[in-house]
Amino acid sequence: xxxxxxxxxxxxxxxxxxxxxxxxxxxxxxxxxxxxxxxxxxxxxxxxxxxxxxxxxxxxxxxxxxxxxxxxxxxxxxxxxxxxxxxxxxxxxxxxxxxxxxxxxxxxxxxxxxxxxxxxxxxxxxxxxxxxxxxxxxxxxxxxxxxxxxxxxxxxxxxxxxxxxxxxxxxxxxxxxxxxxxxxxxxxxxxxxxxxxxxxxxx
Length: 203
Hints:
The chain has helices at residues 16-21, 37-41, 78-87, 134-147, 165-171, 178-188; strands at residues 6-8, 11-13, 27-34, 47-54, 72-75, 96-98, 123-126, 157-160, 194-196. It has 203 residues and is of the alpha/beta class. A 4-stranded parallel sheet has the order 3-4-5-6.
């Protein structure tokens, strides 16, 4: 296979189809896949010390048995680990390892003085997928504006820098929880102080 090595942010990588093509000559200490057991299953002949798949509770489907292609599952919480084990009971629970999000809760337990310049309104930026809590932020936005009224004479602004159209299109009429969330997001983006930018390029 051709050498299709690329560098991104200092990390050397090659496209997955090339990894599969050179699998018989791979010699790795660890291979981590994000929610893609099929890739792990295709690494036939590769020398891999440990195979890990990172899974979220919202993406549980796998066309191959996890116990046949991976050594460990990485979950975000103990609850998520238990839930994943319920969905994949043949996978050993002791091999579902928790890698929590890097949030230090102690940072949010004390009052902090805000030092805001009068010329600059309090500014917030949301730049992730809308199903990762955008509806929560938009529901909280009136309370955030009210709480900041004592610190600044200017109206706080929230910039949403991520496309939501696809999510809204597929979720608006869902009978699951995504339906109400889509309606909340569509309405919440019209609030005072909220600017929706849509998809933002990397240039």
